[in-house]
Amino acid sequence: MATQLHKAIYFDDYQSEKGKAKSFALAFTEDEAELFKKVGQLSSYAIKKILKCDTYSVLKKKADRDGRSVNQYAKRIIAKHINKVDVPSFQTKDVTFGNSKDVPFQRWYPYIEGYSPSFVDALIDKYCPNAKLIYEPFAGTGTTIFSADHKGIPTLYSEVNPLLQVLIDTKISVMKLSSSKRQALASKLVNINDNMFAALAKTTPAENLRASYYRVFGKSVYFPEDQFEQVLRLKTIIDGIEKDGDLLLAKVLSVAVFSCLIPISYLKKQGDLRFKTEKERQNEMVIIQDILPEKIKVIIEDIQNCQVNIRLNHKLIQGNAKNIGKSSLKNKIDAVITSPPYLNGTNYFRNTKLELWFLSYLQSEDDLRLYRDEALTSGINDVKQEYSKQVNDLSSPLLDDTMMILDKQAYDRRIPLMARCYFREMHEVFQGLTKNLNDGADILVDLGDSIFSNVHIQTDLILLEIIEPLGFKLQSREILRQRRSRNGALLSQVLLVIKYKKV
């Protein structure tokens, strides 16, 4: 049977034969491989724009009128018009975390806000192949660091979330091990995995972790009782390993455990962290006895078989990127590659509160607020009242016009304040950068726009206006992918290619 290639197109009204809503799979033959290659780089939105069909029902009617199947009709229209479309340089799957789910080391902890290593590889090759030092102000899970190392370029990075600092440091430490030490670490993990739950039955729960849970979360119930007790016992085992001096083993095991906390909890990370619905509890709840051994097996496989090694020294500087101006670097930065938090209302620290609690970074109810205050203001709950007293002196007519409308239309007075704080703090990051950039440095920013109260906040264009007086000049702006918001407005994820010239 001839091989077929498939491209998924998402239609809200598409129903499979089993009656479940899902994407329509456009099928291509081997002879249509070149057309498939072009289509594969387009988002569902871009394909529907070519077809001039927002719904599957409209596409079906057009195909019926033409006397063709939906598959034949769609390919015919796409082939006719695709050369008129600007095909992006990067595939949609590369500019999200989706392409990292199967990448060794990257798959240890799912981080939907991240992008893929292949995306960073392409950025370096295309825009800054000769850079001698790269800076990543919002490091996330370390994708930029590992791609830059593969290219032979050392990286300085900032990351305000201690959970992600631990994750990056753990992966770097493992990747620096010799082959024999990797095999020894893997053997220890195999032994732990084989005997873990038998050992847990004889292990006392970590009462200090239990106490901090109630101090931080009060009466909130995030785990089934039996799963909560298992997590506390796992913490006791990890603390014992650390006390015996095997710090790296303890850190790797911690990564495995905290990666399982959301799945075994009553919570779900879908955009923001929320409680699972009753139906989701019935269909999606898992137990740590099932998923932790599988997670450890994945980690063991990467440690044993993946020949990825860290060759260079990469350094965490100024955990908070807003403080980069306080650093005086001996060697100046040649390139910045980053995807800063989007202005999207997301509370990034709240989304990792269970993991932070397990790692003992949350000891009281106030700790989460303290971490949020350090982060870039991108969510409504990040806003502090004292921000309202700040004067907006940023040079951006677009920001001024947007805020004028948002002040009138926002359903929550914190929304315009959140936006003002976001741009002020982004300006602070870029202003601090100027102290440590080489003249002619390349700045590559992956950023998305936002809509609040039906007001379109053109985040990337406003950012360009406020940083231009600092010496940052736009070279190109590429749309990476597009989608429709709930109110039907078009939102874009873009790549800003910026050149820095000292002023």
Brief account:
With 503 residues, the chain is an alpha/beta fold. The protein has helices spanning 33-39, 44-51, 56-65, 70-81, 117-127, 143-150, 162-175, 179-200, 207-217, 225-243, 247-258, 261-264, 278-284, 288-305, 353-358, 365-374, 397-409, 414-433, 459-467; strands spanning 5-9, 24-28, 134-136, 155-157, 267-270, 272-275, 315-316, 333-338, 437-448, 450-452, 455-457, 472-484, 490-500.
Poorly predicted parts: 96-100
Tally the helices: 19
What's the helical proportion of residues?
A: 40-55%
Reported for the largest beta sheet, the result is: 7 strands, mixed
Find the structural class using helix and strand composition. Answer: alpha/beta
CATH topology of the largest domain: Rossmann fold
CATH class of the largest domain: Alpha Beta
- Shape-level CATH architecture of the largest domain: 3-Layer(aba) Sandwich
User: For the record, what is the CATH homologous superfamily label of the largest domain?
Assistant: Vaccinia Virus protein VP39
Through-space gap between termini: 64 Å
Total count of domains? 3
What spatial order of strands do you see in the largest sheet? 7-4-3-8-9-13-12
How many DSSP-defined strands? 13
Form type: globular
Mean pLDDT: 88
Sheet-strand content, in percent, reads: 5-15%
- Rg computed from alpha carbons, rounded to a whole number of angstroms: 24 Å
